[in-house]
Amino acid sequence: MKGMTASIRSERTKLVLTDWVTANLSVFVFNIFRCFMANPLHDSISDVANYIMQPKLCMEQFLIPLILLFLYWISGFYNNPFGKSRFYELLNTALISAISTILIHLSLLTNDQMNDIEANLVQIVLIFLIFFSLTFSGRLFVINRQIRHFKKKEWKYRAVVVGNSSKAHALARQISGSKAIITTEIIGFFHIPGEDDSDNSAWNLEDIARICSDRNIDHIIISPEKSDDNTVLNLVYQLFPLGIPLKLSPDTINFMTSSIHLKDIYGQPLVDLTHSRMSEGSKNMKRTIDVVASAIVLVLLSPLFLLVALWVRLDSPGPAFYTQQRIGLRQKPFNIIKFRTMRTDAEADGPQLSNDDDPRVTRYGRFLRKYRIDEIPQFFNVLKGDMSLVGPRPEREFFLRQIIRKAPYYTLLYQTRPGITSWGMVKYGYASHVDEMVERSKYDLLYISNMSILVDFKIMLYTVLTILKGKGK
After folding, report:
1. Per DSSP, what are the bridge partners of residue 160?
2. Which of 13, 42, 378, 402 is the most exposed place for a label (fewest CB within 10 A)?
3. Could you count the other beta carbons within 10 Å of the beta carbon of residue 283?
4. Is residue 383's pLDDT more than 90?
C-alpha cells in the first residue's frame, strides 16, 4: 500500500477543482437571480441568456472564481487535504463566503445597488446563501468520500517508530488500536543507540532514509526510552532533513520542548515537531506578505542595487555580490545572497564570525553593514521561498553543529523558514562567537512559540528603527 503522502497532491487537486466548479456554478446561479432582480419582466430563456452574456458579467464569471480560490487558499483549506473536520470546514466555508459576499457586493455589484435598502440586503443574503451552500456541498462530497475510504481501511497513514523499547512498542499498540476514523499503520521500529531493545527486528537508525523512501512512510514517531530533551532534540536534528512529519509522545516533553504545539493527531495526543504554531491560514498569509513585499522592494530599490553594486566593486577587488550556503527550513541548505562587505580572502583560514573591529571588512562594507544595506539582496531569497521576511537567522552548518552541541533546542528553529530579520537580531544583534549565537537563539525560540502576523509586523517595525539609528552592527 502506498502512503498517504503520495496522495496529497491528488486530493488537493480534487479540492481545488471542486471549489472552482462550485464557484463558477455559484456565479452563474446568482447571475440568473440577478437578472430577475434587475428586471422582473424578463420572462424568457433568451432574455436571461442575453443578460448573463453581457461582457461585464462574462468578465465577472471569469474573475470571481479565481478570487474565491485565492481566498480559499489564504484560509489554509488546501494545505492539509486529509483529516478535515466537517464542522470546522462548515465554519471556515461560512466565514470565507461572508468575506467573499462583502467583497463581491462592494467591488463588482455597485452598479446593481438600488435605493431600496431592503432590496440590497436581499441581494447580499442571496449571494451568501448561494456561495455558501454550493461551496460547502462540494467540499462535503469530497470530505465524505475521504472518510469512507478511511472507514473501510482502504486508506491508512504509514508510520515508523524511532525507538525499540517496551515503551515504544506500547505506544505503537495504542496507535494501531485507536478507534479513530483515520488510522495509522506502524510499519516497524528503529533502534536508538544506547537503548535496550524490546525485540530483534528493529532497523538501524542510519538506514531510516532508505527505508522511509522504499516503504512510503508518512510519519516518523519518536519514542525514546528515556524522556530527556537532549536525546529527543538530537534525534530531531538527525531526522528533520528527511522532510517527513515528526511526531512525539507528550510524556517525552520536558522544559525546553514544552513550547512545541500539542494537538490531537488522528485520535492520539501526539506532538507535531515539524510545523510551527501558526494556523495554516496565517502561514499562507505570511507567505503572501513575503512574496508581495519582496517583489515591491526589489522593484523600488533596483536603482539602489546598481549604485551599491558599483560602489562595492570600486571599493575593493572582487564581485559585488556574495553567496554563502546556509541551512534553512527543515535543515535544507540554500545559498544566501548579500552585498559583499569583506575582502575576497576573508575566510582563507576557514569559517570565521565577524566583530566590530574586524579588519577583513572593507571601508564601504562597514557602512553597508551598519545600516544593513548588505542584507537587501536577501529579498531574492524570500521571493524564491528560501527565507521569510521574519524568522530565525540562518546559520552555516559549520557553526550550526557547534550551536547544537551547546544548545540542542536550536533544532526546533527549523520548524519555520529563516528570515532577513528576527526577534534575536532585534533584541540581541549580530553575534561574534558561538556563545553569543546561543544566547541570541533563545529569542528566536521565543519567537517560534509566539509566531503570528502581528508579531512579524512588530519585529519589522523594530528592525526599521534599528536601521534608521545605524545600529545594524
Report:
1. 188, 220
2. 13
3. 18
4. yes
**Three-state secondary structure call for residue 420:** strand
* Residue-level pLDDT at 336: 96
Whether the CB-CB separation of 235 and 274 falls below 8 Å is answered with no
Residue 447 backbone class (left: φ over 0; alpha: ψ -120 to 50; beta: rest): alpha
Q: Look at the chain and count its residues.
A: 473
- Cβ proximity of 387 and 288 under 8 Å: no
272 is written with which cell numbers? 507535531
Tell the residue number behind the cell numbers 440590497, with chain if given: 120
pTM of the predicted structure, to 2 decimals: 0.85
Q: Which residues of 299-328 are buried (b: 16+ CB within 10 A; e: fewer)?
A: eebeeebeebbebbeebeebebbbeeebbb
DSSP annotation of 450 reads S
Residue type (1 letter), 430: Y
> Which of 248-257, 316-325, 461-470 comes out lowest in average pLDDT?
248-257
Question: What are the beta bridge partners of residue 204?
Answer: 191
Nearest CA among 289, 375, 371, 255 for reference residue 326? 375
Query: Using CA atoms, how far apart are residues 366 and 56, in angstroms rounded to an integer?
Result: 57
Characterize the bridge pairing of strands 262-265 and 268-272. antiparallel
CA 203 to chain centre: 32
Check: CB of residue 103 under 8 Å from CB of residue 67.
yes
What is the average per-residue pLDDT within 66-84?
91
User: What does the block give as the cell for 311?
Assistant: 560602489
Range 352-384 burial, b when 16+ CB lie within 10 A, else e: bebeeebebbbebbebbbbbbbbbbbbbebbbe
Q: Which residues of 224-254 are buried (b: 16+ CB within 10 A; e: fewer)?
A: bbeeebebbbbbbbbbbebebbbbbbeebbe
Give the count of alpha carbons within 13 A of 329, CB side only: 18
Between CA 290 and CA 271 the distance in angstroms is 28
pLDDT at 464 over 70: yes
pLDDT digits (tens, 9 = 90+) for 317-330: 889 999 999 999 98
Contacts of 178 (CB under 8 A, 6+ apart): 184, 266, 267, 268
Question: Cell 515508523 maps to which residue?
Answer: 160
Rounded distance between C-alpha atoms, residue 363 and residue 14, angstroms:
57
Q: How many CB atoms are located within 10 Å of the residue 286 CB?
A: 22
**Predicted confidence (pLDDT) at residue 433 exceeds the cutoff of 70:** yes
Cα separation, 89 vs 140, in Å, equals 9
Is it the case that residue 473 has pLDDT exceeding 60?
no
- As given in the structure block, the three cell numbers for residue 371 are 545600516
**Is the per-residue pLDDT at 29 higher than 50?**
yes
Output the DSSP codes for 272-340.
ESSS-SS-HHHHHHHHHHHHHHHHHHHHHTHHHHHHHHHHHHHHSSS-SEEEEEEE-GGG-EEEEEEE-
pLDDT of 256-285, one tens digit each? Answer: 455 555 554 445 567 777 777 788 899 999
